[in-house]
Protein backbone atom coordinates (compact mmCIF):
# COMPACT_ATOMS: atom_id res chain seq x y z
CA UNK A 1 0.00 0.00 0.00
CA UNK A 2 2.89 2.36 0.80
CA UNK A 3 4.29 1.81 -2.65
CA UNK A 4 0.91 2.50 -4.26
CA UNK A 5 0.73 5.79 -2.39
CA UNK A 6 4.25 6.73 -3.56
CA UNK A 7 3.28 6.04 -7.13
CA UNK A 8 0.03 8.00 -6.91
CA UNK A 9 0.22 11.30 -8.76
CA UNK A 10 1.02 14.22 -6.54
CA UNK A 11 0.44 17.56 -8.10
CA UNK A 12 2.25 20.84 -7.79
CA UNK A 13 1.13 24.38 -8.24
CA UNK A 14 -1.75 24.45 -10.67
CA UNK A 15 -4.99 25.50 -9.06
CA UNK A 16 -8.39 23.84 -9.36
CA UNK A 17 -11.46 26.05 -9.02
CA UNK A 18 -14.64 24.47 -7.69
CA UNK A 19 -18.18 25.83 -7.81
CA UNK A 20 -20.77 23.88 -5.75
CA UNK A 21 -24.54 24.19 -6.06
CA UNK A 22 -25.68 25.63 -2.70
CA UNK A 23 -27.73 22.73 -1.34
CA UNK A 24 -26.71 20.17 1.25
CA UNK A 25 -26.72 17.15 -1.07
CA UNK A 26 -24.47 19.05 -3.53
CA UNK A 27 -22.21 20.99 -1.16
CA UNK A 28 -21.03 17.91 0.76
CA UNK A 29 -19.72 15.92 -2.22
CA UNK A 30 -18.10 19.02 -3.76
CA UNK A 31 -16.31 19.88 -0.51
CA UNK A 32 -15.29 16.26 -0.12
CA UNK A 33 -13.84 16.37 -3.63
CA UNK A 34 -12.08 19.63 -2.73
CA UNK A 35 -10.38 18.00 0.27
CA UNK A 36 -9.46 14.98 -1.84
CA UNK A 37 -7.77 17.10 -4.54
CA UNK A 38 -6.01 19.23 -1.94
CA UNK A 39 -4.67 16.11 -0.24
CA UNK A 40 -3.16 15.12 -3.61
CA UNK A 41 -1.27 18.41 -3.74
CA UNK A 42 -3.60 20.52 -5.88
CA UNK A 43 -4.34 24.00 -4.50
CA UNK A 44 -8.11 24.49 -4.46
CA UNK A 45 -10.29 27.59 -4.56
CA UNK A 46 -13.99 27.19 -3.86
CA UNK A 47 -16.10 29.88 -5.51
CA UNK A 48 -19.45 29.96 -3.73
CA UNK A 49 -22.76 31.77 -3.53
CA UNK A 50 -23.65 33.91 -0.52
CA UNK A 51 -26.83 31.85 -0.37
CA UNK A 52 -26.17 28.74 1.79
CA UNK A 53 -22.47 29.65 1.91
CA UNK A 54 -20.15 26.94 3.25
CA UNK A 55 -18.22 27.67 6.46
CA UNK A 56 -14.55 28.31 5.50
CA UNK A 57 -13.32 27.81 9.07
CA UNK A 58 -14.10 24.10 8.69
CA UNK A 59 -11.71 23.82 5.74
CA UNK A 60 -8.60 25.79 6.67
CA UNK A 61 -6.59 24.47 3.73
CA UNK A 62 -9.05 25.52 1.04
CA UNK A 63 -9.46 29.06 -0.31
CA UNK A 64 -13.05 30.37 -0.39
CA UNK A 65 -14.20 33.24 -2.59
CA UNK A 66 -17.84 34.44 -2.52
CA UNK A 67 -19.25 35.45 -5.90
CA UNK A 68 -21.74 37.91 -4.31
CA UNK A 69 -24.69 37.09 -6.50
CA UNK A 70 -27.97 39.00 -6.41
CA UNK A 71 -30.84 36.52 -6.53
CA UNK A 72 -34.61 36.84 -6.81
CA UNK A 73 -36.61 35.20 -4.00
CA UNK A 74 -37.63 32.47 -6.50
CA UNK A 75 -34.04 31.22 -6.16
CA UNK A 76 -33.78 31.08 -2.39
CA UNK A 77 -37.20 30.53 -0.84
CA UNK A 78 -37.78 27.08 0.76
CA UNK A 79 -41.24 27.15 -0.84
CA UNK A 80 -39.82 27.79 -4.31
CA UNK A 81 -40.61 25.41 -7.13
CA UNK A 82 -37.39 23.41 -7.54
CA UNK A 83 -37.06 23.75 -11.30
CA UNK A 84 -37.78 27.49 -11.16
CA UNK A 85 -35.19 27.72 -8.39
CA UNK A 86 -32.50 25.97 -10.43
CA UNK A 87 -33.23 28.12 -13.47
CA UNK A 88 -33.11 31.31 -11.35
CA UNK A 89 -29.85 30.23 -9.69
CA UNK A 90 -28.26 29.58 -13.07
CA UNK A 91 -29.27 32.88 -14.59
CA UNK A 92 -28.53 34.87 -11.42
CA UNK A 93 -25.09 33.37 -10.86
CA UNK A 94 -23.75 33.23 -14.41
CA UNK A 95 -22.26 36.75 -14.57
CA UNK A 96 -20.89 36.89 -10.99
CA UNK A 97 -19.32 33.43 -11.46
CA UNK A 98 -17.72 34.51 -14.74
CA UNK A 99 -16.32 37.67 -13.14
CA UNK A 100 -14.98 35.82 -10.10
CA UNK A 101 -13.31 33.21 -12.32
CA UNK A 102 -11.88 35.83 -14.68
CA UNK A 103 -10.45 37.74 -11.73
CA UNK A 104 -8.81 34.55 -10.42
CA UNK A 105 -7.36 33.81 -13.86
CA UNK A 106 -5.54 37.16 -13.77
CA UNK A 107 -3.69 36.06 -10.62
CA UNK A 108 -3.39 32.28 -10.77
CA UNK A 109 -2.43 29.40 -13.03
CA UNK A 110 -5.75 27.54 -13.15
CA UNK A 111 -5.60 23.92 -14.35
CA UNK A 112 -9.35 23.49 -14.56
CA UNK A 113 -12.70 24.20 -12.98
CA UNK A 114 -15.04 21.60 -11.53
CA UNK A 115 -18.62 22.84 -11.34
CA UNK A 116 -21.77 21.11 -10.20
CA UNK A 117 -23.42 19.45 -13.18
CA UNK A 118 -26.63 21.46 -12.57
CA UNK A 119 -24.72 24.71 -13.18
CA UNK A 120 -25.17 24.61 -16.94
CA UNK A 121 -24.56 28.37 -17.12
CA UNK A 122 -21.25 28.09 -15.25
CA UNK A 123 -20.13 25.20 -17.48
CA UNK A 124 -20.62 27.45 -20.49
CA UNK A 125 -19.04 30.48 -18.79
CA UNK A 126 -15.85 28.63 -17.76
CA UNK A 127 -15.45 27.11 -21.17
CA UNK A 128 -15.94 30.52 -22.84
CA UNK A 129 -13.09 31.86 -20.68
CA UNK A 130 -10.88 29.08 -22.03
CA UNK A 131 -10.80 27.14 -18.75
CA UNK A 132 -11.17 23.35 -19.13
CA UNK A 133 -14.20 22.42 -17.06
CA UNK A 134 -15.43 19.18 -15.51
CA UNK A 135 -19.01 18.57 -14.37
CA UNK A 136 -19.46 17.01 -10.93
CA UNK A 137 -22.62 14.92 -10.88
CA UNK A 138 -23.84 14.47 -7.34
CA UNK A 139 -26.46 11.97 -8.48
CA UNK A 140 -25.96 8.41 -9.65
CA UNK A 141 -24.61 7.36 -13.04
CA UNK A 142 -28.03 5.80 -13.72
CA UNK A 143 -29.73 9.13 -13.09
CA UNK A 144 -27.30 11.12 -15.20
CA UNK A 145 -27.61 8.55 -17.97
CA UNK A 146 -31.38 8.90 -17.87
CA UNK A 147 -31.05 12.69 -18.20
CA UNK A 148 -28.79 12.32 -21.21
CA UNK A 149 -31.38 9.98 -22.74
CA UNK A 150 -34.26 12.41 -22.11
CA UNK A 151 -34.72 13.68 -25.69
CA UNK A 152 -34.98 10.08 -26.95
CA UNK A 153 -37.35 9.18 -24.12
CA UNK A 154 -39.50 12.16 -24.99
CA UNK A 155 -39.59 11.17 -28.68
CA UNK A 156 -40.53 7.63 -27.68
CA UNK A 157 -43.38 8.91 -25.49
CA UNK A 158 -41.97 7.78 -22.13
CA UNK A 159 -41.81 11.31 -20.76
CA UNK A 160 -43.42 13.48 -19.58
CA UNK A 161 -44.87 10.92 -17.24
CA UNK A 162 -48.34 12.53 -17.34
CA UNK A 163 -48.53 11.67 -21.03
CA UNK A 164 -47.16 8.21 -20.35
CA UNK A 165 -49.46 7.56 -17.38
CA UNK A 166 -50.84 4.28 -18.75
CA UNK A 167 -47.28 3.09 -19.45
CA UNK A 168 -46.11 3.67 -15.86
CA UNK A 169 -45.09 0.06 -15.26
CA UNK A 170 -43.32 -0.51 -18.60
CA UNK A 171 -39.58 -1.06 -18.46
CA UNK A 172 -37.68 1.64 -20.34
CA UNK A 173 -35.65 -0.32 -22.93
CA UNK A 174 -32.26 1.37 -22.73
CA UNK A 175 -32.49 2.07 -18.99
CA UNK A 176 -33.54 -1.19 -17.36
CA UNK A 177 -34.31 -1.84 -14.50
CA UNK A 178 -36.00 1.56 -14.62
CA UNK A 179 -39.71 1.69 -15.38
CA UNK A 180 -41.45 4.74 -16.79
CA UNK A 181 -42.67 5.61 -13.30
CA UNK A 182 -39.06 5.64 -11.99
CA UNK A 183 -37.85 8.31 -14.38
CA UNK A 184 -36.89 11.62 -12.81
CA UNK A 185 -39.87 13.86 -12.11
CA UNK A 186 -40.76 16.82 -10.00
CA UNK A 187 -44.41 16.95 -8.99
CA UNK A 188 -45.96 20.37 -9.24
CA UNK A 189 -43.23 21.74 -11.51
CA UNK A 190 -44.11 22.70 -15.03
CA UNK A 191 -43.28 19.71 -17.25
CA UNK A 192 -41.90 21.85 -20.07
CA UNK A 193 -39.74 23.78 -17.62
CA UNK A 194 -38.33 20.49 -16.25
CA UNK A 195 -37.65 19.14 -19.76
CA UNK A 196 -36.05 22.48 -20.67
CA UNK A 197 -33.82 22.40 -17.61
CA UNK A 198 -32.74 18.83 -18.29
CA UNK A 199 -31.85 19.68 -21.92
CA UNK A 200 -29.76 22.63 -20.80
CA UNK A 201 -27.88 20.43 -18.32
CA UNK A 202 -27.30 17.70 -20.91
CA UNK A 203 -26.39 20.16 -23.68
CA UNK A 204 -23.90 21.99 -21.44
CA UNK A 205 -22.23 18.70 -20.48
CA UNK A 206 -21.97 17.75 -24.17
CA UNK A 207 -20.79 21.16 -25.38
CA UNK A 208 -18.51 22.36 -22.58
CA UNK A 209 -17.35 19.57 -20.27
CA UNK A 210 -13.91 18.01 -20.71
CA UNK A 211 -15.02 15.24 -18.39
CA UNK A 212 -17.54 14.19 -15.78
CA UNK A 213 -16.83 13.38 -12.16
CA UNK A 214 -19.35 11.16 -10.40
CA UNK A 215 -19.91 10.24 -6.79
CA UNK A 216 -20.27 6.58 -7.62
CA UNK A 217 -18.02 3.56 -8.05
CA UNK A 218 -17.50 0.79 -10.55
CA UNK A 219 -18.73 -2.05 -8.37
CA UNK A 220 -22.27 -0.65 -8.31
CA UNK A 221 -22.63 1.15 -11.65
CA UNK A 222 -20.05 -0.07 -14.18
CA UNK A 223 -22.46 -0.40 -17.17
CA UNK A 224 -24.08 2.97 -16.42
CA UNK A 225 -20.66 4.65 -16.24
CA UNK A 226 -19.55 3.11 -19.52
CA UNK A 227 -22.75 4.36 -21.17
CA UNK A 228 -22.06 7.93 -20.06
CA UNK A 229 -18.53 7.88 -21.49
CA UNK A 230 -19.86 6.58 -24.77
CA UNK A 231 -22.69 9.10 -24.90
CA UNK A 232 -20.52 12.13 -24.06
CA UNK A 233 -17.28 10.95 -25.71
CA UNK A 234 -15.33 12.18 -22.71
CA UNK A 235 -13.95 10.48 -19.61
CA UNK A 236 -16.17 9.81 -16.58
CA UNK A 237 -14.34 9.51 -13.26
CA UNK A 238 -16.30 7.58 -10.64
CA UNK A 239 -14.44 8.84 -7.58
CA UNK A 240 -17.02 7.81 -4.99
CA UNK A 241 -18.03 7.02 -2.40
CA UNK A 242 -16.74 10.53 -1.69
CA UNK A 243 -17.72 10.65 1.97
CA UNK A 244 -15.40 7.69 2.52
CA UNK A 245 -12.58 8.87 0.24
CA UNK A 246 -12.35 12.27 1.83
CA UNK A 247 -9.41 12.73 4.18
CA UNK A 248 -10.60 16.12 5.49
CA UNK A 249 -12.95 17.09 8.30
CA UNK A 250 -15.60 14.57 9.32
CA UNK A 251 -18.12 14.71 6.48
CA UNK A 252 -20.90 15.61 8.94
CA UNK A 253 -19.12 18.93 9.36
CA UNK A 254 -19.98 19.94 5.81
CA UNK A 255 -23.52 20.35 7.10
CA UNK A 256 -25.67 23.45 6.79
CA UNK A 257 -27.51 22.45 9.97
CA UNK A 258 -26.16 21.64 13.42
CA UNK A 259 -26.78 17.97 14.21
CA UNK A 260 -28.45 16.93 17.45
CA UNK A 261 -25.74 14.67 18.85
CA UNK A 262 -27.87 13.63 21.81
CA UNK A 263 -29.35 10.92 19.65
CA UNK A 264 -26.03 9.02 19.71
CA UNK A 265 -26.28 8.52 23.47
CA UNK A 266 -29.91 7.47 22.95
CA UNK A 267 -28.70 4.88 20.41
CA UNK A 268 -26.04 3.68 22.86
CA UNK A 269 -28.85 2.54 25.14
CA UNK A 270 -30.29 0.23 22.46
CA UNK A 271 -29.31 -3.32 21.48
CA UNK A 272 -27.59 -4.03 18.15
CA UNK A 273 -29.77 -3.65 15.04
CA UNK A 274 -32.88 -2.77 17.04
CA UNK A 275 -33.52 0.82 15.86
CA UNK A 276 -34.98 2.08 12.57
CA UNK A 277 -33.43 5.38 11.44
CA UNK A 278 -35.91 7.59 9.54
CA UNK A 279 -34.95 10.62 7.45
CA UNK A 280 -36.16 12.13 4.20
CA UNK A 281 -33.07 14.31 3.67
CA UNK A 282 -32.60 18.04 3.52
CA UNK A 283 -35.18 19.12 0.92
CA UNK A 284 -38.16 16.75 0.70
CA UNK A 285 -41.41 17.83 2.36
CA UNK A 286 -44.46 15.71 3.09
CA UNK A 287 -48.11 16.56 3.60
CA UNK A 288 -49.43 16.52 7.13
CA UNK A 289 -51.52 13.44 6.28
CA UNK A 290 -48.44 11.47 5.14
CA UNK A 291 -46.53 12.59 8.23
CA UNK A 292 -49.33 11.29 10.45
CA UNK A 293 -49.49 7.94 8.65
CA UNK A 294 -45.72 7.62 9.04
CA UNK A 295 -46.06 8.30 12.76
CA UNK A 296 -48.95 5.89 13.24
CA UNK A 297 -47.16 3.25 11.19
CA UNK A 298 -44.02 3.59 13.28
CA UNK A 299 -46.13 3.39 16.41
CA UNK A 300 -47.91 0.27 15.15
CA UNK A 301 -44.67 -1.47 14.15
CA UNK A 302 -43.50 -1.89 17.72
CA UNK A 303 -39.96 -1.02 16.54
CA UNK A 304 -37.80 1.67 18.26
CA UNK A 305 -37.13 4.56 15.85
CA UNK A 306 -34.91 7.62 15.50
CA UNK A 307 -36.78 10.09 13.28
CA UNK A 308 -35.40 13.27 11.70
CA UNK A 309 -38.25 15.77 11.40
CA UNK A 310 -36.76 18.92 9.88
CA UNK A 311 -38.50 22.13 10.88
CA UNK A 312 -40.66 23.16 7.92
CA UNK A 313 -40.61 19.68 6.38
CA UNK A 314 -44.31 19.04 6.97
CA UNK A 315 -46.58 20.96 4.61
CA UNK A 316 -49.41 22.54 6.49
CA UNK A 317 -47.25 22.88 9.60
CA UNK A 318 -47.19 20.96 12.82
CA UNK A 319 -43.87 19.18 12.23
CA UNK A 320 -42.96 19.75 15.84
CA UNK A 321 -46.10 18.20 17.23
CA UNK A 322 -46.41 14.42 17.24
CA UNK A 323 -49.83 13.38 15.98
CA UNK A 324 -52.57 13.50 18.56
CA UNK A 325 -53.40 10.18 20.00
CA UNK A 326 -50.00 8.44 19.79
CA UNK A 327 -49.82 6.67 23.09
CA UNK A 328 -47.08 7.04 25.68
CA UNK A 329 -45.52 3.69 24.80
CA UNK A 330 -45.05 4.67 21.14
CA UNK A 331 -43.69 8.10 22.07
CA UNK A 332 -41.17 6.67 24.48
CA UNK A 333 -40.05 4.12 21.89
CA UNK A 334 -39.11 6.85 19.44
CA UNK A 335 -36.72 9.78 19.40
CA UNK A 336 -37.38 12.76 17.15
CA UNK A 337 -34.59 15.19 16.21
CA UNK A 338 -34.44 18.18 13.85
CA UNK A 339 -31.15 17.07 12.22
CA UNK A 340 -29.00 14.01 12.92
CA UNK A 341 -25.28 13.31 12.55
CA UNK A 342 -26.31 10.87 9.83
CA UNK A 343 -22.97 9.19 9.14
CA UNK A 344 -22.45 8.45 12.80
CA UNK A 345 -26.02 7.26 13.16
CA UNK A 346 -25.67 4.87 10.22
CA UNK A 347 -22.38 3.58 11.62
CA UNK A 348 -23.96 2.92 15.02
CA UNK A 349 -24.50 -0.76 15.73
CA UNK A 350 -27.97 -0.10 17.20
CA UNK A 351 -29.26 0.92 13.76
CA UNK A 352 -30.91 -1.99 11.94
CA UNK A 353 -32.32 -0.26 8.85
CA UNK A 354 -32.78 3.17 7.24
CA UNK A 355 -36.18 4.46 6.09
CA UNK A 356 -34.93 6.90 3.47
CA UNK A 357 -36.13 9.11 0.62
CA UNK A 358 -33.20 7.62 -1.36
CA UNK A 359 -31.37 10.88 -2.00
CA UNK A 360 -28.13 9.78 -3.64
CA UNK A 361 -25.94 10.76 -0.69
CA UNK A 362 -28.17 8.94 1.78
CA UNK A 363 -28.28 5.90 -0.49
CA UNK A 364 -24.48 5.75 -0.78
CA UNK A 365 -24.04 6.40 2.94
CA UNK A 366 -26.40 3.54 3.78
CA UNK A 367 -24.64 1.18 1.34
CA UNK A 368 -21.24 2.08 2.76
CA UNK A 369 -22.47 1.52 6.32
CA UNK A 370 -23.96 -1.85 5.34
CA UNK A 371 -27.47 -0.77 6.43
CA UNK A 372 -30.51 -2.08 4.49
CA UNK A 373 -33.12 0.44 3.38
CA UNK A 374 -36.83 1.06 3.31
CA UNK A 375 -37.32 3.25 0.26
CA UNK A 376 -39.75 6.17 0.11
CA UNK A 377 -38.67 8.22 -2.91
CA UNK A 378 -40.29 11.66 -3.01
CA UNK A 379 -39.12 13.39 -6.22
CA UNK A 380 -36.28 14.08 -8.66
CA UNK A 381 -33.69 11.27 -8.87
CA UNK A 382 -34.96 9.53 -5.74
CA UNK A 383 -37.24 7.24 -7.78
CA UNK A 384 -34.25 6.11 -9.85
CA UNK A 385 -32.15 5.42 -6.74
CA UNK A 386 -35.01 3.60 -5.01
CA UNK A 387 -35.43 1.31 -8.02
CA UNK A 388 -31.73 0.44 -7.96
CA UNK A 389 -31.89 -0.15 -4.19
CA UNK A 390 -34.83 -2.52 -4.45
CA UNK A 391 -34.38 -4.15 -7.88
CA UNK A 392 -30.75 -3.89 -9.02
CA UNK A 393 -28.83 -4.27 -5.78
CA UNK A 394 -31.55 -5.89 -3.63
CA UNK A 395 -30.48 -3.91 -0.59
CA UNK A 396 -33.88 -2.61 0.45
CA UNK A 397 -37.68 -2.81 0.26
CA UNK A 398 -40.27 -0.31 -0.95
CA UNK A 399 -42.63 1.35 1.51
CA UNK A 400 -45.11 1.56 -1.36
CA UNK A 401 -46.84 4.26 -3.39
CA UNK A 402 -49.38 5.09 -0.74
CA UNK A 403 -48.13 5.79 2.76
CA UNK A 404 -50.67 4.06 4.89
CA UNK A 405 -50.20 3.20 8.58
CA UNK A 406 -50.99 -0.51 8.27
CA UNK A 407 -48.63 -0.97 5.34
CA UNK A 408 -45.93 1.13 7.01
CA UNK A 409 -46.05 -0.98 10.16
CA UNK A 410 -45.85 -4.16 8.07
CA UNK A 411 -42.91 -2.93 5.97
CA UNK A 412 -41.02 -1.64 9.01
CA UNK A 413 -41.32 -5.04 10.68
CA UNK A 414 -40.32 -6.75 7.42
CA UNK A 415 -37.09 -4.79 6.99
CA UNK A 416 -36.19 -4.87 10.69
CA UNK A 417 -37.27 -8.36 11.67
CA UNK A 418 -38.26 -10.34 8.57
CA UNK A 419 -36.43 -12.62 6.14
CA UNK A 420 -36.69 -9.94 3.44
CA UNK A 421 -34.71 -7.63 5.73
CA UNK A 422 -32.12 -10.33 6.38
CA UNK A 423 -31.62 -10.90 2.65
CA UNK A 424 -31.23 -7.16 2.02
CA UNK A 425 -28.79 -6.92 4.95
CA UNK A 426 -26.66 -9.71 3.50
CA UNK A 427 -26.54 -8.03 0.09
CA UNK A 428 -25.78 -4.59 1.45
CA UNK A 429 -22.89 -5.98 3.47
CA UNK A 430 -21.51 -7.41 0.29
CA UNK A 431 -21.73 -4.00 -1.41
CA UNK A 432 -20.14 -2.39 1.63
CA UNK A 433 -17.12 -4.70 1.24
CA UNK A 434 -16.85 -3.73 -2.41
CA UNK A 435 -17.03 -0.06 -1.45
CA UNK A 436 -14.27 -0.63 1.13
CA UNK A 437 -12.05 -2.16 -1.55
CA UNK A 438 -12.71 0.73 -3.85
CA UNK A 439 -11.79 3.23 -1.12
CA UNK A 440 -8.59 1.35 -0.36
CA UNK A 441 -7.51 1.36 -4.01
CA UNK A 442 -8.78 4.87 -4.93
CA UNK A 443 -7.71 4.31 -8.54
CA UNK A 444 -10.32 6.64 -10.02
CA UNK A 445 -9.01 9.52 -7.92
CA UNK A 446 -5.49 8.92 -9.19
CA UNK A 447 -6.83 8.90 -12.73
CA UNK A 448 -8.73 12.12 -12.14
CA UNK A 449 -5.66 13.91 -10.74
CA UNK A 450 -3.55 12.74 -13.71
CA UNK A 451 -6.24 13.99 -16.07
CA UNK A 452 -6.51 17.37 -14.35
CA UNK A 453 -2.74 17.78 -14.62
CA UNK A 454 -2.84 16.90 -18.30
CA UNK A 455 -5.42 19.58 -19.17
N1 LIG B 1 -28.17 14.52 6.53
C1 LIG B 1 -27.67 14.69 7.80
N2 LIG B 1 -28.55 14.70 8.84
C2 LIG B 1 -29.89 14.55 8.69
C3 LIG B 1 -30.38 14.37 7.38
C4 LIG B 1 -29.50 14.35 6.32
O1 LIG B 1 -26.44 14.81 8.00
O2 LIG B 1 -30.61 14.60 9.68
C5 LIG B 1 -27.22 14.53 5.39
C6 LIG B 1 -27.04 13.14 4.83
O3 LIG B 1 -26.01 12.47 5.52
C7 LIG B 1 -26.72 13.42 3.37
C8 LIG B 1 -27.40 14.74 3.09
O4 LIG B 1 -27.75 15.30 4.35
O5 LIG B 1 -25.31 13.54 3.19
C9 LIG B 1 -28.67 14.59 2.28
O6 LIG B 1 -28.33 14.36 0.96
P1 LIG B 1 -29.19 13.40 0.03
O7 LIG B 1 -28.53 13.37 -1.30
O8 LIG B 1 -29.41 12.09 0.68
O9 LIG B 1 -30.62 14.07 -0.03
P2 LIG B 1 -31.15 15.56 -0.32
O10 LIG B 1 -31.09 16.24 1.00
O11 LIG B 1 -30.24 16.18 -1.35
O12 LIG B 1 -32.53 15.32 -0.78
From TrEMBL:
Pfam families (alphabetical): UDPGT
Coiled coil ranges: none
GO molecular function term, any single one: quercetin 7-O-glucosyltransferase activity
Q: Which keywords accompany this UniProt record?
A: Transferase
Q: Name one GO cellular component term.
A: cytoplasm
State the InterPro entries in the record: UDP_glucos_trans
UniProt similarity note: Belongs to the UDP-glycosyltransferase family.
Record's protein name = Glycosyltransferase
Annotated source species: Triticum aestivum (Wheat)
Print the organism lineage: Eukaryota, Viridiplantae, Streptophyta, Embryophyta, Tracheophyta
